[in-house]
């Protein structure tokens, strides 16, 4: 009985330490949108409506809505990324279920 209880506690501790299944608020990307205005990127710059959408579908929508985007990268939420800025790139952060969990923005 004690072993099962220990497994349950370890499971809950691990589950609460992961953030990959949590969706982020739309307001998390507002600073990035302000930065985009300074760089004068053209076309649609953010897609708040894609939070919770499957990443493969989101990629198709982004490429359709802004033809200037040539690099759409699908990454697991929390993956390390470079800090360089590019007007032709959008990073889609997904969870283990394959859904977008962060505001997709150009950069």
UniProtKB/TrEMBL annotation:
<keyword id="KW-0732">Signal</keyword>
<dbReference type="GO" id="GO:0004867">
    <property type="term" value="F:serine-type endopeptidase inhibitor activity"/>
</dbReference>
<dbReference type="InterPro" id="IPR000864">
    <property type="entry name" value="Prot_inh_pot1"/>
</dbReference>
<keyword id="KW-0722">Serine protease inhibitor</keyword>
<dbReference type="Pfam" id="PF00280">
    <property type="entry name" value="potato_inhibit"/>
</dbReference>
<dbReference type="GO" id="GO:0009611">
    <property type="term" value="P:response to wounding"/>
</dbReference>
<protein>
    <submittedName>
        <fullName>PIN-I protein</fullName>
    </submittedName>
</protein>
<dbReference type="InterPro" id="IPR036354">
    <property type="entry name" value="Prot_inh_pot1_sf"/>
</dbReference>
<comment type="similarity">
    <text>Belongs to the protease inhibitor I13 (potato type I serine protease inhibitor) family.</text>
</comment>
<feature type="signal peptide">
    <location>
        <begin position="1"/>
        <end position="23"/>
    </location>
</feature>
<keyword id="KW-0646">Protease inhibitor</keyword>
């Amino acid at each position: 009985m004690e072993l099962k209880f220990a497994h349950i506690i370890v499971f809950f501790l691990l589950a609460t330490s992961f953030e990959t299944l949590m969706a982020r608020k739309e307001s998390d990307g507002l600073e990035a949108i302000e930065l985009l205005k300074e760089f004068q990127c053209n076309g649609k710059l953010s897609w708040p409506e894609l939070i919770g959408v499957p990443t493969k579908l989101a990629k198709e929508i982004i490429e359709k809505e802004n033809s200037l985007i040539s690099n759409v990268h699908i990454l697991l939420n929390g993956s390390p990324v470079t800090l360089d800025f590019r007007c032709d790139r959008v990073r889609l952060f997904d969870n283990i279920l394959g859904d977008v969990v962060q505001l997709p923005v150009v950069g």
